[in-house]
Amino acid sequence: MTLxxxxxxxxxxxxxxxxxxxxxxxxxxxxxxxxxxxxAVAVARGLAPALGGLVAPAVAFGASGEHQDFPGTVSIGTPxxxxxxxxxxxxxxxxxxxxxLVNGHGGxxxxxxxxxxxxxAEGRDVAWVPCAPDPCCGAGLDAHAGRxxxxxMLHLDPARVRLDLAEAGVTHPLAEVLPVLRAEGVRExxxxxxxxxxxxxxxxxxxxxxDQMVARALQRLGAGMxx
Length: 227
Ligand SMILES: [Zn+2]
Fold this sequence. Notes:
Layout: E1 16-21, H1 35-51, E2 53-55, H2 77-92, E3 98-103, H3 109-121, E4 126-130, H4 147-156, H5 174-184, H6 186-189, H7 203-222
Parallel strand pairs: 1-2, 1-3, 3-4
Helix pairs in contact: 1-4, 1-7, 2-3, 4-7
The chain binds zinc ion.
Zinc ion binds near residues 35, 105 and 144.
């Protein structure tokens, strides 16, 4: 059951709530703007049965300043997102025993980890996990709208993937492009918005990658890593 579907008497006092944290940002010419939100929701739903938790409505706007040069991107930035997440955590923990933020966008990292630290310092049981598959050996840059995200979307929502428009972006090692990316934004290093190459993406690979994301998140939660 999701939190949005529940009537209040059905919500268990002291239970666990998973909150997907996504973004609304460009994902190349072939993927929709809500990829990170879709992935975060899918990972949260994958975790819910194992953890016995409810999945809350997703936070669909994040810190996406590096993508702001592309039309469609909507970013609230790190300070505002941090405030939102702290207040969500405070409100949720008035009745939830534990809150897990499931982060689908790397650019949210600073806000997610800072808000979790703050909430933990206030004595609340709050943790976070990324949506990260197993590290893949030999693969080139695949940071954004590349093979991983395209595969996962082909698995989750194939009707919204425009494979005919998929094309490679910048594939140099991330360390090489990161300084310009940070200073000038993604458009400066990858005019089509893709950091990686969606070529070879398949639905089967997406299913495997999603399983890995859920398994790694479970492992991380089991290991008690919270910040
Ligand atoms: Zn993404």
